[in-house]
Amino acid sequence: MATFTIINEQIIIIDVIPDQSNAKLKFNIDGSQLVAVEIDGVNRTLTFNPVGSGETEVEFTDEPFGIMKIFLPQNSLTNFATFGRTLEGDFLNNFTKTEFERVFSLAEHYNLSPENIQKIKNFTTIDNQKAYEIAGKMLVPLGFTAQANLTQAGQAYIDGIGNSTTFAEIFDKIEQRIRNETGSGGLGDDPTFGDAPPES
Questions:
Q1: Domain segments of the chain: what residues?
Q2: FRET partner for 101 with CA separation of 20 to 30 A, picked from 27, 53, 72, 187?
Q3: How much is the pTM?
Q4: Which regions of the chain does DSSP assign to beta strands (E)?
Q5: How far apart are the first and last CA of the chain?
Q6: What is residue 72's three-state secondary structure?
Q7: What distance in Å separates the CA atoms of residue 174 and residue 13, rounded to the nearest whole number?
């Protein structure tokens, strides 16, 4: 029996109780190139057998063991997710009504389709996902209808989160970005943005 106790962008931790009559275990891990595997705190060199597109089979022939840790490769997006979790925590989102409205002001600014706005609403209110999770899905895009402005909105989220030191700062940073882009006022804003050129 295997229980997945932690799964995130950095690591998968599995509590393993194999069948005593057959200690051989196989795990198929989809879409990942593994950085390292530890079994009961000891780094192991394992056999990785290609199974199919983006899939790796990890086979064990050890005696029964307790905890397996699978370390995943890191990049700028996984680093962003790690940072997002430090700001927002590991549990359900805690958006206030005001913050929820600010999420949609961003969507309106980038003229997202009604379908994509509904997806943001569902991710936020039904799935209770965090801002960093929604931002990552917008940037990929994952679960959204392809739309040029979607990735721009996702990047605005990511920049807002990445430039914040507290969760309270996130939406202030995003709104400041929108004010700068639209010329509607604020620190660093270009007051002539969107103005008609002078007549000659």
A1: 2-71, 76-182
A2: 187
A3: 0.62
A4: 2-7, 11-16, 25-30, 36-39, 42-44, 47-52, 55-60, 67-71
A5: 79
A6: coil
A7: 35
